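The freezer alarm interrupted the setup, so I double-checked each line after restarting. Inputs confirmed:
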Amino acid sequence: MRILITGAAGFLGSHLCDRLLSERHEVIGMDNFITGSPDNIAHLADNENFSFYKRDVSNYIFVPGKVDAILHFASPASPNPQSKSGYFNLPIQTMKAGALGTHNCLGIARREGSRFLLASTSEIYGDPEVHPQTESYPGNVDPIGERAVYDEAKRFAESLTMAYHRFHGVNTSIVRIFNTYGPRMDLEDGRALPNLLKQALLGQPLTVYGDGGQTRSFCYVDDLIDGIVKLLYSDEHYPVNIGNQDEMTILQFAEAINKITGNQAGITFMEDARSTRDPQRRQPDITRAREILKWEPKVSLEEGIKRTVPFFKQKLGLA
Amino acid sequence: MRILITGAAGFLGSHLCDRLLSERHEVIGMDNFITGSPDNIAHLADNENFSFYKRDVSNYIFVPGKVDAILHFASPASPNPQSKSGYFNLPIQTMKAGALGTHNCLGIARREGSRFLLASTSEIYGDPEVHPQTESYPGNVDPIGERAVYDEAKRFAESLTMAYHRFHGVNTSIVRIFNTYGPRMDLEDGRALPNLLKQALLGQPLTVYGDGGQTRSFCYVDDLIDGIVKLLYSDEHYPVNIGNQDEMTILQFAEAINKITGNQAGITFMEDARSTRDPQRRQPDITRAREILKWEPKVSLEEGIKRTVPFFKQKLGLA
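Predicted 3D structure, all chains:
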C-alpha cells in the first residue's frame, strides 16, 4: 500500500512509519515539526520507500499519486502546561489539527478511496465516571474547560470521521489511544511516566502528587502500534480502544520504576496544587480490540521500561 | 455599532437583524441560503442600514471596514431526518459551519477587536442526566452518534471560542439556546411545536409519540432575542443558557395547542419508533441569565402561540 501518515515525526507517527515500512509499504510522511522532531525520522532518510513533506495538515495538503491509506496522527498531545509544544500553549493549532486537518485528510480519502484511520484518544472520555471505559461511554468533558482544546478537537474529529463514513461512504476507522510510552516519547510531555522515569535515572526521589492513589495504565509503544496496524488492516468503522488494562496507582508505579531502574532515592509526596486537573483514573476496556482485532498487549511494564531506558539516558546525556 | 450576523436569513438570524436595526445599528447580513430563506430578510431590502452578502461562512469571508460585533448564527439546526435542510442531510456542512465558520468569524473578531457572540445550543448537553441543566453540566453526547454532527460541532465551536478568548484575548461570548418558536421558524424543522401547531391549524388530530411524557420547554423568539442582545451588550465571556423554564409534557403541550387554536380533532398516540432518538427531557437553568443579564422570559405560551399562528397560516396557505 501507499500510505500517508500525518504527524509522521511525532512519537507514535514515527513508530508507525517504521512498522509500515518494515511491512514493505510505501510511506509518505507529513509533519510541520511544531511538536514532532526531525530526529525521530532521521534514520529513514535513505529509505527509498519513505518520502517526506514538511506541511501543516491544517492547511491545504496535496499528495501526488494514489493514496491507499491515510493515518491522521498530527496533533499536539502533551498536557503539560509548561511545555511549549503542549496543547495548552498551542490551543488554536490543536483545534485546527483536529478539525481542519481531519477534514483535509478525509477529503483525500474520499477522492482516493483510501482507508482512513483517525488517531483519537482516551481524552474524549474526559474525567470518566465509569471504569473501565468502553467505547460506548459518552465521556465527561466540559467543552469550555482548558483541556477542551484537545478533547473537543478529537471528539469533533471522530464525529466528522463518522459523518464521512455514513454520508460519503468513506472507509474510515477510529483508534482511541490510551496512555502510551516508549522510545521517542516527549520527556517533557508532563505525564506521570516520563516525569518519574527521568527522576529515577537521575537518581532523584520520585515526586508523587497527593497520596499517589490516582491510577493509570501504561501501554508500551510496540503493543500500541501493533493494535493500530491490525485496525488499519481490518474493515472496522467504529471506535476501538487500544491500551493496556493493567491499572496501578501512581504510587505503585513509582515504586516499580525505582525497582526496575535500581534507583535508591525513594519517593517524595507533594500536594497536588496543579491548576489543570488530570483525570483521577483512566483504564481502557479492550473487549472490542480483543474480539474484532484479536489484539491484546504483550509487553510487561518491566520489559517496556527496560526498552525505554536507553532512549531516556541518551536524551538526558547519561548514555 | 457595525454588526456582522452570519445566518442572517435564518429564523433567529433574521429576528436579530430586525432587533439590532431597530436599535439603530448598522447590520451586515451573511447567509448562503442552504437553510435560511431570502423571504426572511426581504423586508430589509430598502433599509439603508442593512447590507447583505451571499456567502458560505465556512469558506474565506471578508467584510470591508470596521466590524464592532459578530454574531455567528450560521448552521443547519433542524433535527428532522426527513428535512433536506436538517443536519442529518447536511452533516459535513453542519460540522464545517461550527468549526471553519467559527474559526473564520473569530479571525475577523481578533483582527477587528470585535465583540463575538457564538450561537451555541442546549444540544451540547445531549440527552442530559441532570435537570434542569446548568451551564456547568458537561453534557451527555456520544461523539459518534448520528446527532453528533450538530452537537459536537457546537461543542467544538465553544471550545474554539474560549481558546480565542483565553489565548488571544478576544472579547467573546456564548449563548446556549434552548427550544425556541415564533414567526419564520421552519415548519418542517421536525420538533414538537411546529409539528403540533401545523396539525392543529389544519384541524387534524395532534400526533403524540409514546405516552407524551417527554418534557419540553418552549421560548418565544422575542424573549430569546432579548436575552441574546443583553448578552451582546454585556461583558460576559462564559456560556449563558437562554430559554424558557416552564417545563411541560408533550401531552400537556398538545392539549394547550388544541385549546389555544380551538382545534376539536383531539390527540392521536403513536408508538415512538423513530430511529434518531430525541432527548427525553430538556430544561434550562437560567440562574446565570437572571443574575448577569437581568433577563427572564416574559411571553406566555398562549400569547406566543397566538403571535405565531398568522405566520403558520400564511405558510400553510390558510391565510
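Quick read of the result. The mean pLDDT of chain B is 95.
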